[in-house]
Amino acid sequence: MRTVRLIFHLAVLAFTALLPAAFAQKPSPDLILFNGKIFTSNASQPYVEALAIRGERIVAVGGSKEVMALATQNTKRIDLGNRVVIPGINDAHFHLSVTPETYDLPIKGTDPKWQEMKDALSSAVTKVPKGTWIESAFGANILDDPQATRTALDSLAPHNPVVLWDWTGHASLLNTAALKKLGIREDEPNPEGGIYVRNQADRKLTGMVFEFAQFQASRRFSELASQEQAEEQLHEFFNQQARWGVTTVQNMSNPITAERGVALFAKAPPPIRVRVMWFGLTDEHGRLTKEGHDLPLHPTPLVTVSGTKWILDGTPIERSAAMRTPYADRPSTSGELNFSEKEMEDMLRESLQRGDQLLVHIVGDRTAETFLNAMDATGGKAVWSKRRVRMEHGDGVLPDLVARVRELGIVVVQNPTHLALRDLMVGRYGSQRADQLQPLRSLLEAGIPLALGSDGPANPYLNIMLASTYPGKPQEAITREQAVVAYTLTSAYAEFAEKDKGSLEPGKLADLAVLSQDIFKVPADDLPKTESVLSLVDGKIVYDSKVLTAQ
């Protein structure tokens, strides 16, 4: 027995002696961030003090003492000084845009009245060279004003192409010069799901265009931007994203086509990750389904091409979100579907055939119900529960539809800046329906994956503020931690990338942001002031404010 014990102890000693050598053979971390408040987006270990990075991935997280023990003389160390660190923000819904040289009218706010727009335009034509594009944004006031027409714009600016964009991106008003510049003929046929509005008397274009007619116009306008203009504008955009700590942008390719986007990114590589999603357009014969689908999955290291997006209805601003009951402020309409239920079934089948994720813009509750019916008709839960079909906005996921959305495995991508439109929603829908539309907290409580995307003002901390306060409907607000998880881990889940990014844990890509202030404690109104002082993608610095120094 003594002999057996002696052999056992000798074996243990020999194994123990080998341990330091075995660990020594492992490469040391390249970088350690320590002494911080690191929010991981990992529910099992939400906060740690330090993390270690080797190459492009995280190799350890935990307390400062234990992680620092992994360092060698070759390891860089950054003392975070108790700063907050979060996973890199993943903006799950954005439309990258480039434009030719334009003059922007100095309009205050997003919903000017027609007289204000006329005054600004009258002033502009006295100082803008002839032929220069003039543009501005508008909202419900001008949409509802019958004086806002192509003829009125022509009388104010006969020598300049003028385009006024509905800030939702679903309508625009153009003068004659702009229509000609964009190649829109007087007899231009309506594309499926779109309208070139015409005068009843002479059938001439009024200059107002909606839905897929608008998407065509915005794409043609974007294509007027030169290569140099496009590269410069995208460079400025991506640098700002890095300064905010955004490390992924999921881009729905309109107005920039998927092909042009990929070509631009190859020529001027972005410093952060970009997912390029194909955006479907139409013509007078129907949906165009070929464009962009022959692009490579990874054309450049930080660019991925995947997913197909279709717009199924409009928005309440134009009263074009398809509702099951009429609009409160215009009972003559309940909105319109851009496509029939059969067309939605065809979209779903195409998604299966291509093995490509389907993303659908859905705002109205009638649109949501019709699309759910189409999913049931093409296989239901058995086919779709693991395919992560995405509802972009999902405003119309009302209580009676929640169980179906959960059962079908749908991911809802919400845009917090839309939540600030409480007064307009009440005006369009009435207070009772407005209280049910645009759910947030109730989706999480129902177990539906909720991701966040900006779809407009791209400041992620503005969106976190709005999601965690929900103006006018605080019962649907979520916590700041939940908002960050939705903006990071669930946004990664929404693109099938949660195994690689979205949380700060060993084995995942080192995409992160060290923040200028504690977003979990500062007053809500201060959240939009947040910036990143240090942003990493693949463990490499893509933005550095020089606040922190490596040891």
Search tags:
551 residues, globular, alpha/beta, disordered N terminus, 26 strands
In words, what does this structure look like?
The chain has 551 residues and is α/β, with parallel strands linked by helices. It has 19 helices and 26 strands. The strands form five sheets. It has an eight-stranded parallel beta sheet with strand order 8-15-16-19-20-21-22-23. A six-stranded mixed beta sheet has the order 3-2-7-24-25-26, with helices on one face.
Radius of gyration: 26 Å
Low-pLDDT regions: 1-25
Question: What is the global morphology?
Answer: globular
Question: What is the structural class?
Answer: alpha/beta
Largest beta sheet, briefly?
8 strands, parallel
Helical fraction: 25-40%
Number of helices: 19
How far the N terminus sits from the C terminus, by CA atoms, comes to 55 Å
- Kindly state the number of beta strands: 26
Strand proportion: 15-25%
Task: Determine the mean pLDDT.
Answer: 94
The side-by-side strand order for the widest beta sheet comes to: 8-15-16-19-20-21-22-23
Topology readout:
Elements: H1 2-24, E1 31-34, E2 37-39, E3 47-48, E4 50-54, E5 57-62, H2 64-68, E6 76-79, E7 84-87, E8 89-94, E9 102-104, H3 114-124, E10 133-138, H4 140-143, H5 150-156, E11 162-166, E12 171-174, H6 176-181, E13 194-198, E14 205-211, H7 212-223, H8 227-244, E15 246-252, H9 258-267, E16 273-279, E17 281-283, E18 286-288, E19 303-311, H10 341-354, E20 358-362, H11 365-377, H12 380-384, E21 390-393, H13 402-407, E22 411-414, H14 422-429, H15 431-436, H16 441-445, E23 450-452, H17 460-469, H18 480-487, H19 489-493, E24 512-515, E25 532-537, E26 540-544
Parallel strand pairs: 1-6, 2-7, 8-15, 9-10, 10-11, 15-16, 16-19, 19-20, 20-21, 21-22, 22-23
Antiparallel strand pairs: 1-4, 2-3, 4-5, 7-24, 11-12, 12-14, 13-14, 17-18, 24-25, 25-26
Helix pairs in contact: 10-11, 17-18
